[in-house]
Every structure is written in C-alpha cells, then in structure tokens.
Amino acid sequence: MAGIFYFALFSCLFGICDAVTGSRVYPANEVTLLDSRSVQGELGWIASPLEGGWEEVSIMDEKNTPIRTYQVCNVMEPSQNNWLRTDWITR
C-alpha cells in the first residue's frame, strides 16, 4: 500500500514539475491535465487531512520562476491517508 502511495505522490509531483517547467515535449497522443503556472497566489486545493498533512509552499524552478506546490512531510509515519483535490479535474 505504501508503494502505491509513493508512486502516486511522485507521479503527481513530477507531473506538476514537468508541466511547470515546460521542459518535456509531449507526443501528440498525450495531454496536459494540470498546468498551474498561470495561478497567482494560492492554488486553493482541498487537502485531507485538513491539519498535519499537506502544506502549500512556493518554490523556484530552474528559471527562478516562483511556482506553487504542495508537500507532505509525514510520509514515513504509519497509516498515511493524505489526499489533494483540485477543481481543475471534475469528479
């Protein structure tokens, strides 16, 4: 179960970073599901749990452009259940 969580977490983070940096060239059969480069201020995603899980932070990409992202620091603790929900992809 932890392996699935780590895979999903790193897939999301790398997907967001690739979309933000624009360094990857996508084939014609791939689409970008999320590109947060145009967001000014907070992303406003719904985090679960509300406290003690995800934290929204600003980081700099390789071009020194500030980008917003989420991080979770308690991944090594047992029984993790940390989720993010964005309104860019409908339920």
Written overview of the protein:
Residues 30-91 form the Eph LBD domain. It is an enzyme of class 2 (transferase). Its main location: membrane. The protein has 91 residues and is α+β, with helices and mostly antiparallel strands. It has one domain (2-85). Helices cover 22% and strands 22% of the residues. It is built from 1 helix and 4 strands. It has one helix at residues 2-21, and strands at 46-48, 54-60, 66-72, 83-85. The strands form 2 sheets. The protein has a two-stranded antiparallel sheet with strand order 1-4. Strand 2 and strand 3 form a beta hairpin. The radius of gyration is 14 Å and the shape is globular. Residues 1-7 and 17-21 have low confidence and may be disordered.
SSE order in H/E notation? Answer: HEEEE
Radius of gyration, Cα only, in angstroms?
Answer: 14 Å
Low-confidence stretches: 1-7, 17-21
Strand content: 15-25%
The strand order across the widest sheet is 1-4
How confident overall, as mean pLDDT? 67
GO molecular function, one term: transmembrane-ephrin receptor activity
Keywords: ATP-binding, Cell membrane, Kinase, Membrane, Nucleotide-binding, Phosphoprotein, Receptor, Signal, Transferase
Subcellular location: Cell membrane
Signal peptide: 1-19
